[in-house]
Amino acid sequence: xxxxxxxxxxxxxxxTADLLDKIIDLTPAKKDQDHIHIIVDNNPKIPDRTGYIxxxxxxxxxxxxxxxxxxxxxxxxxxxxxxxTAHYFYDKLVEAVEIPFVNMIEEVGKYILDKFEKxxxxxxxxxxxxxxxxxxxxxxxxxxxxxxxxDEVKDMILDLIxxxxxxxxxxxxxxxxxxxxxxxxxxxxxxxxxxxxLPLIFNPLKDDFSEFNFxxxxxxxxxxxxxxxx
Length: 230
Prior knowledge:
The chain is built from 11 helices and 7 strands. With about 230 residues, the protein is of the alpha/beta class. The chain folds into 2 domains: about 5-105 and about 220-230, Rossmann fold, CATH 3.40.50.1860; about 105-215, Rossmann fold. The strands form 2 sheets. It has a 4-stranded parallel sheet. Helix 1 (about 15-25) crosses helix 11 (about 215-230) and helix 5 (about 105-115) crosses helix 11 (about 215-230). The N and C termini lie close together (about 10 Å). Keywords: Isomerase. It is an enzyme of class 5 (isomerase).
């Protein structure tokens, strides 16, 4: 019998749906009963993670804990969080809620180490993920160097992410190329889509950026979830 998975979602809703869709597609199933039992708490009322980390908003830890406890009380075997920035609060969640969690950032690091060994990687993410050193915390011990863009590009990425949250789905190639230029100049060709909204933008356009190896945190979390649940 497989394990019951809890998704602590809503950050944002479309990214949560994207993860669920990927888990379903990756599950080796021939009928409904072969699929994984998943309980999704799609809670968009969790306060903005980046806002809090940047000193401009309400602390989301209370809402994160409430959502995790609801999932635990519904009998899930482990919890996954399809939000990179929310992993800033990961240790507090694990400490407070007595149930296993999957650390998406850690899994991305393991994947990179296995596929590319120790290397430099570019990071596209929210201001909160940059400011909170969410990736550096887990990557530095692995010998993976994180390269971040300029402040101008960071602002552009954040704007892009919130446009996805607002429902926008089509973006100009020129706009995305400009954001990646700094990585290209530094000869960094492994780029982490370190916000779960970003695969919704870049996955359909991978052929236009063939010089880069894009690492989707959503894809890696989905694969790990199927592995653990089955």
